[in-house]
Amino acid sequence: MKDDGDEKTCVSQKTGILYVAPEIRVSNEKNQKRRVDQKWVAQTIEKRRSADIYAFGMVMYEILFRSLPFNDKVDLNEISTKAAEGEKITRPQIQKDKQLHPDLQALLQDCWHDSPEARPSIRRVRLSTESIMKTKGSLVDSMTRMMEEYANNLEKLVGERTAMLEQATLRADKILSQLLPKYVANELKNGRPVAPKMYSSATVLFTDVVGFTKLCGSSSPIEVVNLLNSVYSGFDEIINKRDGYKVETIGDAYMVVSGIPEENGKRHICNVSDIALEIMEFLITYRIPHRKSEKLVIRVGFHSGPVAAAVVGLNAPRYCLFGDTVNMASRMESTGEPGRIQISQASKDLLANEYPEFVTAERGEMDIKGKGECRTHWLLHKDIAYFDK
């Protein structure tokens, strides 16, 4: 079994045939028949120079086309045998898909000429390549120029890749900021854990589409997706104008909070009230995309109180809210009426004390799961003329 060294030697001997000029192979064959050691046969200077030009042509082909002169399907031993017998041999094919200067192609083919006398001298080769490649000076100068061009090109590539990386980072940061609060995203990017935090006062709002299950049953999945996408995009625009944060959407349920993750005193109740009223106003003109004659009806409810916030999960972290305030806000939505905004007594008291421009109406005592009888209210509208009064 041959080792790697033997295989490399065989490959080297096989490809070495490429660089031997035909006339040298003929001489090799004749000298071998005379039982003369070819390694010590003195060739004329002119023949050796012509043979070197032939070898140079093969090397130049490899440099220009980045491949061997003949592909794997060509039998190099057969080519060598024909050359040794004085037969005309096949020359490498010029690759058509490679853009090559016509003068450089002509020079390349001249180096392979069957007649050694017709091959160009090394001086002509040097002058021709300098003229075609627009290079001057010594080999060291040419190499220096090539290194400078390579360095400049490398610097350009690094700049382009850096710009691409910066753009990708900005896109990733934007997506991350949409999934998590900004300070949470920054902490996670820096590899720091985000500790749970307790907020003394915040307002949590829930919305839910009335008759969503029935609507899904008579609509295609794509129609349902388009519906939710258009509705929630409208909701998102409203929230972006206010100091609110969209916590999550689960199917047709939409959850918003204000006062978290950034505390804002008691302004959270004002922000959420504005959001709720603007959502209702948005739905007045909204039409279901695949049913233009139908309106979308939702229930809205919110409650104010203390809330705990934490990041849950490692592979897919989520910013979640916990506590009785969240449960109560959900009950305000689920026990509400279509097209109306139900709020808890705590939210109503906060509005009355801090933002009396919001008009409410008492609904009465409602049986709230886990709470028993609780007094609730309707948020009706905002009295713009209140401040004039």
Write out key terms for the chains shown.
389 residues; 8-stranded mixed beta sheet; GTP-binding; Transferase(Phosphotransferase), domain 1; coiled coil; 13 helices; transmembrane helix; alpha+beta; Alpha-Beta Plaits; guanylate cyclase; GTP binding; 2 domains
Mean pLDDT reading: 82
- The percentage of residues in β strands lies in 15-25%
Q: What's the helix-strand series?
A: HHHHHHHHEHHEEHEEHEHEE
| CATH arch. level architecture of the largest domain | 2-Layer Sandwich
Low-confidence spans: 7-13, 33-43
CATH topology annotation of the largest domain: Alpha-Beta Plaits
Tertiary shape: rod-shaped
Number of helices: 13
What is the rounded Rg?
A: 41 Å
Overall helicity? 40-55%
Largest sheet: 8 strands, mixed
Give a count of the beta strands, DSSP E runs of length 2 or more: 8
How far is it from the N-terminal to the C-terminal residue, by CA? 103 Å
What is the CATH superfamily label of the largest domain? Answer: Nucleotide cyclase, GGDEF domain
What is the name of the CATH class of the largest domain? Alpha Beta
Number of domains: 2
User: In terms of structural class, how would the helical and strand content be classed?
Assistant: alpha+beta
Domain Protein kinase: 1-133
Keywords: Cell membrane, cGMP biosynthesis, Coiled coil, Glycoprotein, GTP-binding, Lyase, Magnesium, Membrane, Metal-binding, Nucleotide-binding, Transmembrane, Transmembrane helix
GO molecular function: adenylate cyclase activity; ATP binding; GTP binding; guanylate cyclase activity; metal ion binding; peptide receptor activity; protein kinase activity
Subcellular location: Cell membrane
